[in-house]
TrEMBL record:
<dbReference type="GO" id="GO:0003406">
    <property type="term" value="P:retinal pigment epithelium development"/>
</dbReference>
<dbReference type="Pfam" id="PF20667">
    <property type="entry name" value="Sec10_N"/>
</dbReference>
<dbReference type="Pfam" id="PF07393">
    <property type="entry name" value="Sec10_HB"/>
</dbReference>
<keyword id="KW-0813">Transport</keyword>
<dbReference type="GO" id="GO:0003151">
    <property type="term" value="P:outflow tract morphogenesis"/>
</dbReference>
<dbReference type="InterPro" id="IPR048627">
    <property type="entry name" value="Sec10_HB"/>
</dbReference>
<dbReference type="GO" id="GO:0045494">
    <property type="term" value="P:photoreceptor cell maintenance"/>
</dbReference>
<dbReference type="GO" id="GO:0048793">
    <property type="term" value="P:pronephros development"/>
</dbReference>
<dbReference type="GO" id="GO:0060271">
    <property type="term" value="P:cilium assembly"/>
</dbReference>
<dbReference type="InterPro" id="IPR048625">
    <property type="entry name" value="Sec10_N"/>
</dbReference>
<feature type="domain" description="Exocyst complex component Sec10-like alpha-helical bundle">
    <location>
        <begin position="158"/>
        <end position="706"/>
    </location>
</feature>
<dbReference type="GO" id="GO:0035845">
    <property type="term" value="P:photoreceptor cell outer segment organization"/>
</dbReference>
<feature type="coiled-coil region">
    <location>
        <begin position="43"/>
        <end position="70"/>
    </location>
</feature>
<dbReference type="GO" id="GO:0006893">
    <property type="term" value="P:Golgi to plasma membrane transport"/>
</dbReference>
<feature type="domain" description="Exocyst complex component Sec10 N-terminal">
    <location>
        <begin position="39"/>
        <end position="148"/>
    </location>
</feature>
<dbReference type="GO" id="GO:0032402">
    <property type="term" value="P:melanosome transport"/>
</dbReference>
<protein>
    <recommendedName>
        <fullName>Exocyst complex component 5</fullName>
    </recommendedName>
</protein>
Amino acid sequence: MATTAQLFEEPFDADEYIERLAWRTPGGGSKGGAEAFDPKRLLEEFENHIEELKQLDEKIQRRVEKLEHQCHREAKEFAHKVQDLQRSNQVAFQHFQELDEHISYVATKVCHLGDQLEGVNTPRQRAVEAQRLMTYFNEFLDGDLRSDVFNNPDKIKEAADIIQKLHLIAQELPFDRFADVKAKIASKYHDLERQLIQEFTVAQRRGEIGRMREVAAVLLHFKGYAHCVDVYIKQCQEGAYIRNDVFEDTAVLCQRVNKQVGEVFSSPETVMAKLIQNIFENKLQAHVREKLDETRHSDVEQYLKNLYDLYTRTTALATKLTEFNLGSDKHTFLSKLIKSIFSSYLESYIDMEREYLRTRGAMILQRYYDSKNHQKRLIGTGSIQELKERIRQRTNLPLGPIIDTHGETFLSPELVVNLLQETRHAFERCHRLSDPSDLPKNAFSIFLLLVDHLCVEHIDYALEIGLSAIPSPDAKNANLYFLDVVQQANSIFHLFDKQFNDQLMPLISSSPKLAECLQKKKEVIEQMEVKLDTGIDRTINCMVGQMKHILATEQKKTDFRPEDENNVMIQYTAACSKVCAYVSRQVEHVRKSMDGKNVDTVLTELGVRFHRLIHEHLQQYSYSSMGGMLAICDVAEYRRCAKDFRVPLVLQLFDTLHALCNLLVVAPDNLKQVCSGEQLTNLDRNLLHAFVQLRVDYRSARLGRHFS
């Protein structure tokens, strides 16, 4: 049976069970095993094992029945116990209810008895207290204070309680009959009050917190309690301001006192608020007045810096002080304290700021022009200037004498940085010192000053000088500096725009002043763009005039009708070489002076005029066969130069011009085929005919018949 039990190991598998049983039986293994397979023995073993399993099943069944019977018996016993416990619990609950009712009844009786006793005892205590006070009052009436409580210094607390009550009683007595006793009580009242304050002062100096708390509790009912608080505040500040930083000293002092004041006074928030008010109205106000009044009229720049610094540090200190308990509305309380210190200075702040910026900006500008030994010209205003501007825009002609600036742009990055730096500081001060309702208006006024100094007095003036310095298109070897003015003006305006977005926009973004600022900025940009466009256009005219001058002086008629057709050794003419070199320099100059899409716009305009000039120039000559080849070489070089523009339109124009030049050399019989080519088929027939007429063999070869 033990062997059988071992075969029932978990997890049970019937097939595995049979295999293990056969393996344990001698002769029950496979035929290839150590012993011969004996089926009879295996059958006998299986039959014996089946019998064992039956016996085991009967044994287990008997055990299960026994356990079930035992479980039923124990369940019945447990149910009886639960019923007994429930009956016991019901009895106990009834007893508890009875006890609770009895306790309630007794408590009611006790309360009633207590009320009766209190009703008897309270009048008795009042009578005793009244009798005691009458006894002390009689002593004052007799003028002889015999009681130990008034003569023993250790009983000053009890004496203070008595005299405080007597003082209240004396207030109700008629003056004519009790004037003398009232005076004596008042004298004793003030004497005790003075003694208590003196004792509080001594305890504070010794650091005896417990004694300070006791004396403060006694003085709480005296009129001199406020004086006690004043003494405490005064002594707290003794030796607290030993450094030069009054703000840091104040923060440390308040941090220290805040821990102590809660241990001494019954209303620490009131005492703490009074301490802070005392510091603001005395220490801080005196410090601010000293710092600002000494520079208000002598050094406005330093005055504004000091005002900004002092106001910033004061508000930062107030933010730290909000950590303490100062009452229900501590933010309003601290704001009023700050306003009481700075109100007189903040009222006149923006006027002083504007006057300082106006003076400072004018000084920076004048200092720059003085360094250049330049006497600033007076730029006209009003209707005459507007008329000149309209004429210049429509005719592109210089109005007034041409000025030689010797390459000076009259734009200074250093000056611009100084102006923007001053304005940045002004915006920061404006943000901090302006009332929220006045902030957009004040910021806009500062912006107008920046526009006046930077955009009008500096950039616009430089553009006017630059326009006046642009030579006429007929000038020879002209130096073109206006592109340098454009480059620097663009760089400066980027800085101006950055400050507009970073400094000004946050101050006005949610106010009606935003529209005014944007409109003013738009007007400034448009005025500058008009002058920049005019100057660039006239500069391009000068470039084209310079090219025209090179062609006029360098190009010879014999270049395209050489005397010896068979002895032409050059790749392109000298005029072409010089023009291409000049154009390449100007293209590079434009790229350095412009940015973004402006580069393509200007180069497109320059390229179109360059093409027009070459086109018109080529039509001034007549061409032999070899001269036509040389013209094609020149145009090829011009086209190579046009690639530097990186503008598809310009390259297309020169490609077409190159195709037109092929008409100068193509065989007469192929003219019609060439004119029908991809690049020439869309051109005007008169233009094609005009180019063919430039050939020296036009009449002899009767080429005109191809266009009839």
